[in-house]
Specification:
By secondary structure, the chain is of the alpha+beta class. It has a single domain, classed as Aminopeptidase (3-Layer(aba) Sandwich), CATH 3.40.630.30. It contains 4 helices and 7 strands, in the order E-H-H-E-E-E-H-E-H-E-E. The chain has helices at 15-24, 29-39, 94-106, 120-128, and strands at residues 2-5, 50-56, 59-68, 77-85, 112-115, 132-133, 142-145. It has a 7-stranded mixed beta sheet. The protein is globular and about 40 Å long.
């Protein structure tokens, strides 16, 4: 599995297939990523932002990125966005690898990473990676301070 940063104005081929799988599972994050990217509302192009995919033999297996948190007026807050791993490749380390790349690319720009998930399995995944549950903030379920 080869991760790479999406560096141009076009989304990689194959992301639509991953979106269909995620929608079939009841998750809309990949579909929303594609829609927002295409309409220009979120192209992961602000200072410190990045979008990553993981591929194997030309097939996209996972996607995820980081944005300046759109819900807070603080450019030091990064929001982990649209992380999704194909169900056949979960628990293979691909999600962990993507998060590490996302964190690494954002660590020089952000003081804290935040995210929202209502899924129990996703919560456990993030907590295993050092994200603490947050109960008192709007649109944030987990947060992690960037190591100094």
């Amino acid at each position: 599995m080869t991760p790479r940063r999406v560096m141009n104005s076009y989304l990689p081929n194959g992301l639509d297939a991953l979106a269909r799988i995620s929608v079939a599972e009841g998750f809309g994050m990949v579909d929303r990523l594609i829609s927002d990217y295409r309409d220009g509302s979120n192209t992961f192009s602000k200072h410190g932002e990045s979008l990553w995919v993981s591929e194997q033999e030309g097939r996209i297996l996972a996607v995820g990125g980081i944005n300046v948190d759109p819900y807070y007026d603080l450019p030091s807050l990064g929001r982990i966005r649209h992380l999704y791993v194909h169900p056949d490749f979960r628990r293979s380390g691909i999600g962990r690898q993507l998060i590490r790349l996302i964190e690494g690319s954002g660590s020089e720009y952000f003081e804290m990473f935040q995210l929202f998930t209502a899924e129990v399995v996703a919560s456990r995944f993030y907590e295993a990676l050092g994200y603490a549950p947050v109960n008192d903030q709007w649109k944030v379920s987990h947060a992690k301070r960037v190591a100094a």
